[in-house]
Amino acid sequence: MRIVIYPGTFDPIHSGHIDIAERASRLFDKLIFAVAVNSYKKPLFSAQERIDMILESMKHINNIEAFSTEGLVADFAREYKAVAIIRGLRHVSDFEFEFQMATMNHHLNSSVSTLLMVTSEKYIHLNSSVVKDVARLKGDISNFVTPVVMENLKAKFGLT
Amino acid sequence: MRIVIYPGTFDPIHSGHIDIAERASRLFDKLIFAVAVNSYKKPLFSAQERIDMILESMKHINNIEAFSTEGLVADFAREYKAVAIIRGLRHVSDFEFEFQMATMNHHLNSSVSTLLMVTSEKYIHLNSSVVKDVARLKGDISNFVTPVVMENLKAKFGLT
Amino acid sequence: MRIVIYPGTFDPIHSGHIDIAERASRLFDKLIFAVAVNSYKKPLFSAQERIDMILESMKHINNIEAFSTEGLVADFAREYKAVAIIRGLRHVSDFEFEFQMATMNHHLNSSVSTLLMVTSEKYIHLNSSVVKDVARLKGDISNFVTPVVMENLKAKFGLT
Amino acid sequence: MRIVIYPGTFDPIHSGHIDIAERASRLFDKLIFAVAVNSYKKPLFSAQERIDMILESMKHINNIEAFSTEGLVADFAREYKAVAIIRGLRHVSDFEFEFQMATMNHHLNSSVSTLLMVTSEKYIHLNSSVVKDVARLKGDISNFVTPVVMENLKAKFGLT
Amino acid sequence: MRIVIYPGTFDPIHSGHIDIAERASRLFDKLIFAVAVNSYKKPLFSAQERIDMILESMKHINNIEAFSTEGLVADFAREYKAVAIIRGLRHVSDFEFEFQMATMNHHLNSSVSTLLMVTSEKYIHLNSSVVKDVARLKGDISNFVTPVVMENLKAKFGLT
Amino acid sequence: MRIVIYPGTFDPIHSGHIDIAERASRLFDKLIFAVAVNSYKKPLFSAQERIDMILESMKHINNIEAFSTEGLVADFAREYKAVAIIRGLRHVSDFEFEFQMATMNHHLNSSVSTLLMVTSEKYIHLNSSVVKDVARLKGDISNFVTPVVMENLKAKFGLT
Q: What CATH number belongs to B3-157?
């Protein structure tokens, strides 16, 4: 069984993430979201809230799991016996960051490769920060997140 | 059985290509090199010579095949029932070209995704043109190509 | 009356060009396509064929004209009393080329500014070379060009 | 009457901004600075101080106005009946951010286009952060800001 | 005597820095590390700790010195009679930042040029933040820093 | 004596090259232009014409020499006992090419480092192709080349 992991902050999951996860899950036997708990960043949602939104947003796909991690992605991959790390690529600045991460992860765990997937062009300008900014300012984000995420964002910003 | 294709000109195959193919071949059941026959570009080696160098350079890997194609990569992928297209990424300029190709191939064959793999840092500055330039000017390329490719390059440039 | 020019090779015009021209034509009183006749490049279509395809593809817009030029864009802008040059932007590599052109044109004709318009994300991976390559290899380009351009491409490649 | 808006933080306005605003104001009937009030960022100057510096620095141009906004740029554009959003471009990293903003604004208000103007090469390395850093460390910024801004910076840093 | 300075935060010095400093020190008569004391950034190590780690890590090279500075790099260069500023380049995003700094420093001190040196490919993905992140999460950083730096990182993170 | 080489095609030398050479020549004891004779590219000027224009354009600097080479830059550096290779940097696309060259040259001759110098912002958009294009179309290039180069360009294009 070939397992891959999809690490990220997912604060919250949006349509770009869902598109990557759907396509990657068809290429391997299982895809596991690795939700980063980073004490330095201050996410809007707790790790558990982020996992719940992922599982709800991806419930149409069978071979998906999601766990949080405080450690290195390379160690998470080893623990879950993953053969590869999946990441989405939108921009040149993504590219450099992903390059650095891919090389460091390969150094720390040489049995795992990083596979970068091109984000669908209709989500190429999307990221979690923009989603949160637009939601906070009451713009329409219904094309960019699932209903559960939209509800959670409204609740966080006191817009319900 | 999950098959992936690795399209390119491979004029000639070098250590960066070999690194990508080795790692990708472990993630899927078969990897097929799709050697582009492009009437506009004038490669140094014929398609058959390029295929022969690929097969010789990759003979330590079992699940590798190589065929030439004059058509679209998307059609080649369909013909060989591939689930994904593998490509190596070194640079920002690679990135934009790969993005464009990935999107067009997805448009032409939506059942196939493109997976970009980060080139190992020791081959990050390597490409077939540099290999040919250095070989032609009698520089040392033994770290960058297999013996069979080195012999073929010397023969082409009359350096044997 | 504020006139802008839209310079390019347009070999042939595609949906990305049409999107830029439609949006720019609403911001100014007239938009003039400046079709480059460059003796160094070898376009697939003659300047007259390219102008004819532009005018046919843009016939739903009133304030559009198209002329060919063998000279500098800065001189064309001066001749047609243009206040600005319009260009579409898709990629980082576009960006650097456009920057260079914008600065040189400003040097040669300081009364004209360059306005770069962001290509709609659904055409972000589109360019005339890809359109021609896919058409030549019998791929489907109906989403990317108007019927008149599709007919002309088929005729050029002997596919009718 | 064709109105455009020029959104930004302008903390404070510098010569690069002035160059863009001068050139854009000649292409349209009115240019309105939209000064972002962002509760997350902590600007050095208050919104009113930033507006006052803009109006003083641009007083040689007639068709300029400046207002602050706490909302979305797309909503500001709608409120002021703007046909386009003007932004300056200096760098590749600018480019990606502007691309994302342009696409999101087009999604939120499809009647408004974004026009990117190439910053004059003599201001290509200039931004408000560098201006503040150099001023704070007592470097010479007289080529980069107007006298009113220089006075305000000195006052803020207790250098008068 | 031709003196060059090598400015940075060096929080802490890593193998990429050492590689640049070794090569640059051979091209000039003296190389002085200029360790930035920036009240806005919060470095992990104090300026004195960073200087001590630099001097210990570079003790195999004779013509090296290290001092801290709270002021402009251009002023530091003037004070130490430097003819050039040395900086390492790894990535495109480095490139833009270095470009901006080089131009501003040239403006502030026209007698000093900036020389950018290409980081060795084996350190191309390395920076101080990644070193600190991996050390904090107990990953292996022995290839990336000298023993003194490894000890200091362990002590800071309570891992000894 | 520390010697550096400045390799390039210099077809023809322009103000950006002159700026780099002036600044680099002050940092070392001798600067040698290495004029590439490349049988694949078709330069407008012969190697001897290019050397003559370099020497005439740089005659205000004492420690400059210029020679042509058909071989590898790394071998030229070894032959002339150079400690470093100087190159100018303008753009991101420059950057990637220079990176690749720097790494390959370091592989072929580890005793030589590459020093990249930031082009002055007023020449950031300048290259030899643009100079030739504008000259051929009778645009004004007097700010970009020395009189001897302007005369030679006019003669080549039959504009005298």
A: 3.40.50.620
